[in-house]
Amino acid sequence: xxxxxxxxxxxxxxxxxxxxxxxxxxxxxxxxxxxxxxxxxxxxxxxxxxxxxxxxxxxxxxxxxxxxxxxxxxxxxxxxxxxxxxxxxxxxxxxxxxxxxxxxxxxxxxxxxxxxxxxxxxxxxxxxxxxxxxxxxxxxxxxxxxxxxxxxxxxxxxxxxxxxxxxxxxxxxxxxxxxxxxxxxxxxxxxxxxxxxxxxxxxxxxxxxxxxxxxxxxxxxxxxxxxxxxxxxxxxxxxxxxxxxxxxxxxxxxxxxxxxxxxxxxxxxxxxxxxxxxxxxxxxxxxxxxxxxxxxxxxxxxxxxxxxxxxxxxxxxxxxxxxxxxxxxxxxxxxxxxxxxxxxxxxxxxxxxxxxxxxxxxxxxxxxxxxxxxxxxxxxxxxxxxxxxxxxxxxxxxxxxxxxxxxxxxxxxxxxxxxxxxxxxxxxxxxxxxxxxxxxxxxxxxxxxxxxxxxxxxxxxxxxxxxxxxxxxxxxxxxxxxxxxxxxxxxxxxxxxxxxxxxxxxxxxxxxxxxxxxxxxxxxxxxxxxxxxxxxxxxxxxxxxxxxxxxxxxxxxxxxxxxxxxxxxxxxxxxxxxxxxxxxxxxxxxxxxxxxxxxxxxxxxxxxxxxxxxxxxxxxxxxxxxxxxxxxxxxxxxxxxxxxxxxxxxxxxxxxxxxxxxxxxxxxxxxxxxxxxxxxxxxxxxxxxxxxxxxxxxxxxxxxxxxxxxxxxxxxxxxxxxxxxxxxxxxxxxxxxxxxxxxxxxxxxxxxxxx
Length: 755
Hints:
The protein is an alpha+beta fold. The protein folds into five domains: 18-91, no CATH class; 109-234, no CATH class; 253-335 and 627-643, Nucleotidyltransferase, domain 5 (2-Layer Sandwich); 342-480 and 701-755, no CATH class; 481-621, no CATH class. It contains 31 helices and ten strands. The longest helix is centred in the C-terminal third of the chain and has 24 residues, at 647-670.
């Protein structure tokens, strides 16, 4: 009989208990089930997992869909650890070979061999970029000529982090001393607190722990010299694996513009492919006046560096000069598309919804909601009371992808905790607090308890904006290439808004005019239509792929991306087999997997009888929609684009930016889909949530500003849409007679302007 015991566990004849099953570290996060050898219970969500043993528990905690129900309450560091343990299962199939690296060339060889070993093969991770099974491994610092090694220093945490046991009193004091030592260095070096969220942080601490006493940390020259060179080499090898896929799947070039403090325009360039996003370079465009001609020259140089044959689309924001330069670039080559950043376009929809000129009641409601959250987040005792006694550690604000997404997500959070907030402002502790008798406290309490329209307005706004925020999440996600879904997502969002507003044309009409105008004027591309047609989960489900504009987009895309007339004709003929579901396309398995496989994987598996169409479909469906998924580090770029340069140090700084950015992007790729815990009053979230939490003198008492009394947030709020009942248990229907529904200014293509 085949055992369900993990590969790295040892058999035990003991009764079903946590210690008797195995010594696998994952059991620290699960409880045994009496009289059921292979069942367990998750300690975070109390979900019982029947069968599968420790492996299924790991899948549950790691969030691997299709293997077990995903745990929604597991801490992020535990989820990351489980992902790494799952990756280890693959490496156990091959013999282990210990690999070591010297940290200090001046240290004794024997000590180096014993103390400076880094990561064993049992800690390797499989690179997302490699479909051929290559592993990211650590190796010696030397690089034999003619031999390229796999990426080693990119490996994150490889062994479980064991917290000190409260029963082991002798161990607690050294641990606390170590934590304080790290904290002192952290504060002295002025490292952002958010740096502790990096998976490389725990990997570093674990590596030091494995070496033991006597470890000599790298010094100033080590960090800026040989170590930087070695990590840069590893990054380049990681990127080389990504580049190998461009010939099959193509890539999207993304131009992400921003302005520094001077202010000077800076443009960062990235490429996206199914293997991951990679940072190319950063360009200072301050002396170019941001004209179409200057931008065109910069864009053209990037295309030539990548190779036009590898490019499927060039994505920029919707700034007018970027659009003109992108269109000129598209016309010059004729082999790829310029596409607007979908996230910027969707954010423009949300921005218009909150515009006082078009929807004044939304603007008014957002102002009231911000007054509530500002008051709470600027008074320590009120914030502490809310987190401890009413919201179970959850917050009323949530940072989104963009500023306007943050507005509506925060409104959604506030509405989710409507009952708890009303209870807080009605409890005895609030009544007896000095804030309750102040003018600002009375105004906020009046909004929460007495304003009859406020909560109805919040509910209405959330019902309208939630489908749009779903699209924003879709186009910004790296879970899967979004281009095959955006066309359908827009249509579904419009239908959802109609349904939630009871199909009342006078109520939903203004919102749909905003969506249609921005979709048609800014966002819609032939590439989106082609991707919709080629996505089997969309084409065969609701017939979206049969619409005339979708068909036109497909033909336009074939003409542009396929240069050979002969291949174009073959694709046209092979499309009939796809549309009629004949051959492999008609297999029962292919039909069942239309919705279960990603579109690219589906074509890889069932498109072999139509190779030209298969190759075309995979290149189209492998692209992203947005340029917003790019990690930023403003301080580094400020230094990089300084006007005063020593050329040697400038090159070193360029390499540092290259390493830092690509490490961040790779970490984001590995952690895709994982919920992130954020504290809205932390420095890192002020940019997006400043309007909801920043101080206003009238909102706080200078005697109540003690941050030490405030517990941090416990977990992110799950904002997946649930019907938000009104007082009578039904979704509220609004019409033109609703007291807060003032008629907005007409919105169409003639009276809206774009910045």
